[in-house]
């Protein structure tokens, strides 16, 4: 009965000093119908699922096989002798006591694993608190819910998949935001510094810097609404790689900014006020384009940006073009010059999008 996945209860009767076996009761708590698909889906997302149960070894092994968890099972006497990476060789832990759950999570964390755990009872609370992602099911006790970092509101565990996908989408938006800020910092910082060295003048007015901050902030805030996909493997922050990627892409965009500035100064002989307007437009146009360059780990046209992101960009481009054309807060530029700067930025960034794929592949970014 145990090997068929049934919990077996022995029943005895008689006086305390003379109990006699009466029979066996089979108590069946079958897995949910969606459990097999859930385990398979999580596996496809790079999440390894293991079973921790107080049931006997035979019952645990049978249930695990039914829901698609591996057959490498261990009873308490076996896994209590293991620690760290030694526990990774098991898929099922049977005859578990509450203190075993807490220890298993700590040992797996010590082996470099990020651990999530589901639970519903008071005895699960310490382990739920210890896990990076403690998940309390919908009918869990208040203590379990208070100890968890995620509480499911629907019955079953299928919402775990939604939580994984949603969190990875959030990560992608945060990654876009971070890369965008690094690239802009590299471009603006070096561009303005080199410009001062070359001209002995500030190549952009302080008032235009303030206006630049406003134009960048609207589109940056809109990243939180962007339509993004989730990676098929777990994500981890790697600040060193992030900096290398941002500096590399920022340097590529810096080349464009300097080229436009030097061409306007030496070939078109623009005055300093006009150069300041051109620098402002260049920084706005490349700043807008950078967001679209890094929001996708694939080519930028592989997904549609959110409505708010596109509206913010269109509004920014229209406003700054009108201000530059009419000479509001800055020296006026001819409409043709404004259009030429915009076209140069668009064409350059479209070409850079192909180089971006090689850069991201070199630094092992998931698409």
What does this structure look like?
The chain is mainly alpha-helical and 367 residues long. The protein has two domains: 31-161, 3-Layer(aba) Sandwich (Rossmann fold), CATH 3.40.50; 170-362, Calcium-transporting ATPase, transmembrane domain, CATH 1.20.1110.10. It is 56% helix and 8% strand. The protein is built from twelve helices and eight strands. The strands form three sheets. It has a three-stranded parallel sheet with strand order 3-5-4. Helix 3 (76-79) links the parallel strand 4 and strand 5. The longest helix has 41 residues, at 159-199. The radius of gyration is 30 Å and the shape is elongated. The two termini are 47 Å apart.
Multimeric organization: single chain
Q: Residue share in helices?
A: 55-70%
Estimated structural class: mainly alpha
Could you name the CATH homologous superfamily of the largest domain?
Calcium-transporting ATPase, transmembrane domain
Radius of gyration: 30 Å
Observed structural traits:
8 strands, three-stranded parallel β-sheet, 367 residues, single chain, Rossmann fold, 12 helices, Calcium-transporting ATPase, transmembrane domain, mainly alpha, 2 domains
Question: What is the gist of this entry?
Answer:
With 367 residues, the protein is mainly alpha-helical. It contains 12 helices and 8 strands. The protein has 2 domains: 131 residues, Rossmann fold, CATH 3.40.50.1000; 193 residues, Calcium-transporting ATPase, transmembrane domain.
